[in-house]
Fold this sequence. Notes:
Blueprint: H1 21-34, H2 38-52, H3 60-74, H4 77-94
Helix pairs in contact: 1-2
Amino acid sequence: MAISSIRMARTTVKSTYSLDVETVDKLDHLPAQWHVTKSEAVRRAIDLAARDQPAALNTPLRALQELQKRAEARFTKRQIESWAAESRRERVRSSSRHEWRKL
């Protein structure tokens, strides 16, 4: 038996999802286009979507953390604190309720 024909067993989980008609229509065409089962088409589509986004930007929190890390590498702590203080002052000045707030 050739090494290339040996396949590792894949653990599977059966799941149920509700999809809109347009998505189901798209999903119905993929298996024929890719010459695979519908399950394999879903796996490939998810894999493609995951590869399109950098891991650090998959969630808004991760995107913010990445942005903060880049800022810390580029600016000094004093520059960041100065920018944050100026931003707070500007928010207070531009607020419609700024009359009763202290700067």
